[in-house]
Amino acid sequence: MIEVFGHRVLRSIPPEVSQGLVSGMYKLYGGAIRWAPVTAKGGQIVCLLVPTKSFVNSLEGTAPALFANVGNVYSSFNKTSLKADQIFNVSQEILSISKSAMISSGLNLVFSAIGFAYVSDRLNKIDKKLDEVQKDIREIKAFLESKEHAELRAALNDLLKLTSIKDLETRKTVLHTARQSLSIISERYREQLADAENLQKTIINEEYYCLTSYARMHCSAELNMQETVVGEIDEMIKFWDTKIRQVTKKDILRSNAERFLYNEYVNDVPVETLVELLDFAGDEKKGYKWIDELRRKNKSWYPENYYHSPLDGERGNLSAEKWLTFPVIQKILARRNVLEGHRSQIEFLAMNKITPTEFEEKISGLVKDEGDDFIILGPSAGASPRSANQRV
User: Fold this and answer.
1) What CATH class does 115-242 carry?
2) Measured in Å, how far apart are the chain's first and last C-alpha atoms?
3) Labelling 277: which of 18, 176, 261, 295 has CA 20 to 30 A away?
4) How many CB atoms lie within 10 A of CB 360?
5) Residues 287, 310: Cα–Cα separation, whole Å
6) For 362-378, what is each residue's pLDDT tens digit?
7) pTM for the whole thing?
8) What does the DSSP 8-state code read for residue 311?
């Protein structure tokens, strides 16, 4: 059995891990499977799902999840036990969810040498998408022509040449210079995100803030600045949580979140998605108790004047919600999930004192079948999952 960094290289997700996800003992965070927060071992890594280069390359041309609904990326594991013939299906479903999270969130699932290329490709797609709507939004045109945007492209172009640079000191110089530029640019986009006054501008600035922060963290990781990159991901998630939680309350749930209980929303915002969104917005795990709170706010089925349907009155613009609100809901939940997975992977790299390039080089030779989308790293035989702050 091949082992890498104390983990077994597996062809599929182990049955006991699938069972643990179904029972709620484990939770999937983007490309990391960890013990659920409510358990005694909450946060400990169980498995890492590392997307292969061929899978990442296959996403070329995929529409960015900016204002395009890619569907619900979450699946409700509601069984407490599985039969033998169901295990494989659950394993495949887990991988499918991770694929969808990667596409919907717009972020790679793992920190690796292909990270800079992924950010550059993503930037090209987002720029093209924004160019299509710039006639309607004056600020977008100015944004695409801004100094920060040009500097971002210049920094990424330098980083894309990194693999061809053999001299170690030259590589370090390029990384330090790019990291300095990206730190300034990321801070600028953070300010714009903090000041964004509507949902559309928020999600545009959020996209660039995440991309620039993601690239900067890659530079830190490549420079082996282990404590720094752990601090950077923690700071990013803290800011992202605060801002996007505010946006979710103000611009998505608004003062009439009970509208999501009507039948127009059932396909785009299924109940498990709604519950997860409410948990995130309220920063409180109430689960399905949220539904009862919304039901208390809703109109009576038999109103006092029974000649008027409970559907009468102000309903809002559903077409606008399908275009903007629904996709943003999916993106927020997917991206938050992937960011938590990134935290696990950054801690993994720090514990093993390796850079993303070293990690990529170590696992690249493990791909036997170019059709494989993921390399699965599971715990060693007989070993129990270890804490995220322990050496693995």
Assistant:
1) mainly alpha
2) 17
3) 18
4) 19
5) 26
6) 777 766 656 677 888 88
7) 0.69
8) T
